[in-house]
Specification:
The chain is α+β, with helices and mostly antiparallel strands. Helices cover 35% and strands 28% of the residues. It has 7 helices and 8 strands, in the order βαββαβαβαββααβα. The strands form 2 sheets. Strands 2-3-1-4 form a 4-stranded antiparallel beta sheet, sandwiched between helices. It has a 4-stranded antiparallel beta sheet with strand order 6-7-5-8. The longest helix has 16 residues, at 53-68. The model has no long low-confidence stretch (mean pLDDT 89).
Length: 176
């Protein structure tokens, strides 16, 4: 059995794609995943299974569509992959009131052209580091002003979901 984490895109954002975490846990359990845990309301699920990532991604997306009627992308990582995400965080500046760090999870590595497009969106307020299927970003809110941070998935043209650093590390700690 391998411990996996699924990060769902767009769950409980405003009034969209609403679901209770008890219902989400029950859905994962109905797929025969074991030791299912969720973290906060944004679709972060930790569980164990013997099936592979591609099967998990397909099963979860299909089950959510069938059960809730939502077309939701699922980004899947093993616990070892998530530990690597945390261990390899590239930014020196720790989170504080104005500096915030994020990770955007992708299902595939961006192409060189996508990579260039995202790096071209960097600014004094926001910087990116792409490492495999993960995009690290650091946002300086003091320099952002009234602007919004970049929608990494939209800029790359691929399914993606973004989590702040506190969520990423808390989800990793769920496995301990």
């Amino acid at each position: 059995m391998t411990t996996y984490i699924v990060f769902l895109r767009g769950i409980n954002v405003g009034a969209h794609n609403r679901m209770k975490m008890t219902d989400l846990r029950a859905l994962f359990e109905s797929l025969n995943y074991e030791n299912v845990q969720t973290y906060i309301q944004s679709g972060n699920v930790v569980f164990e299974t013997g099936v592979n990532e591609e099967t998990i991604r397909s099963n979860v997306s299909d089950a959510i569509a069938d059960t809730f009627g939502y077309d939701i992308a699922a980004m899947v990582r093993t616990s070892a992959e998530l530990a690597d995400v945390v261990d390899n965080q590239p930014f020196d500046e720790p989170d504080n009131d104005s500096i915030k760090r994020y990770v955007t999870f992708l299902n595939e590595e961006p192409t060189d052209k996508q990579h260039e497009k995202l790096l071209g969106a960097q600014s004094e307020a926001e910087s990116f580091e792409i490492r495999g299927r993960n995009v690290y970003s650091q946002l300086n809110k003091a320099k952002l002003g009234d602007g919004r941070f970049t929608d990494t998935g939209q800029k790359l043209g691929m399914a993606a979901t973004r989590r702040n650093w506190n969520v990423v590390t808390a989800v990793l700690e769920l496995q301990d």
